[in-house]
């Protein structure tokens, strides 16, 4: 039971961007991983470790953890966990610019989507696929994947995951020169990120918003830059506080 509670806590810390704290919790569980007798808990730990490595830019490590988790999931026929791990593996490959591998793994995840109890988790898979197509300049495919993600997010109230979808959709619109609509999606992302208390994603969305405003509204652009500076100060103060607590 205690390991399930720890996994839930790590998920919460990950969702609000407290990566250092989440990794500290995972490290504690990792020491016990060989004696945990609940396969789903073990696989959740592998998935979380891969996701945290992605967030830290450690893509090679993320790929290795996801692959190792997939081996274990296949061995005990945990198809739902295979969906999650293929999504994590595809995401890691995407961030590492291995686009062909990313597409293959994300499509493998979608092939296993029938086994997921919570349909809302498909939002992330479609968002990563949309980001992949965006990088390949396949705008129509990107729009289709991201529209599917938004429909899922609206139906399942998946606010945490929907932040990334709005960010990516805004990037697509910006790349197409539709700066007004891009601003609208990045404002939505900022609002959701604030509700989720994730300052890192709020900052990313605000930065992308500033790029569109620079093209359309000088006054709002300057205001956005001020807000971004204030937010960066808050992030810095929180990081300093985390470091002080960990010493």
Automatic annotation (TrEMBL):
The keyword Lipoprotein does not apply. One of its GO terms (cellular component) is cytoplasm. TPR repeats lie at residues 123-156, 163-196. Belongs to the Rap family. Its main location: cytoplasm. This is Tetratricopeptide repeat-containing protein. It is found in: Cytoplasm. PROSITE patterns: TPR. The keyword S-adenosyl-L-methionine does not apply. Keywords: Cytoplasm, Repeat, TPR repeat. Pfam families: TPR_12 (PF13424), TPR_7 (PF13176).
